[in-house]
Structures are given as structure tokens and as C-alpha cells.
Amino acid sequence: MEVVRNHRKTRVGVVVSNAMDKTIVVAIQNNVRHPLYKKIVKMTKKLKVHDEKNECNVGDKVEIAETRHLSKDKYFRLVRIIEKAK
Prior knowledge:
The protein has strands spanning 10-17, 23-33, 40-50, 61-66, 74-83. The chain has a single domain, classed as CATH 2.40.50.140. The chain starts with 9 loop residues before the first strand and ends with a strand. By secondary structure, it is mostly beta strands. Strands 1-2-3-5-4 form a 5-stranded mixed β-barrel.
């Protein structure tokens, strides 16, 4: 019997903090049109992400995926590191 998981949301962002154990903070940037002035505004959302092997450093570009709640506000996990920081 084959188990099929639901489609989970994936995002790409930049690591802004790795001070916690097995947790990184990733900034996701989104361009949104202002409702009144019609100008494009950059919106940034910070998410806590589970990093099992503590392999990410600040500045890395990473792909993350949605998962079940792992703590109060950690519900994403690290999928892969796209680009290491220089």
C-alpha cells in the first residue's frame, strides 16, 4: 500500500539567524502592490525553520517546506540549501 502526502507549500528565502539549536530564521521576501498608491512594496516575513543537522549559516539561500507544528511557532523544515553564503 502506498502512502500519498498532501501537497505542501515550499518557499525560498535567506537565512538571517542560526543562533538557536536545530532552528534557523529565514526571511521570505514578497512583492505586493499597495492598494491605494499602486506602488510595488517589498514585504518581508520571518519564519522559524527546523534544521536537523545545524548545517545552515547566515546568508545561505534555502528552500523550505511546510510541515506539522514542531513547536509554538516552528512549522517549516529545511528541504535543501540552494546556495551557500560567500
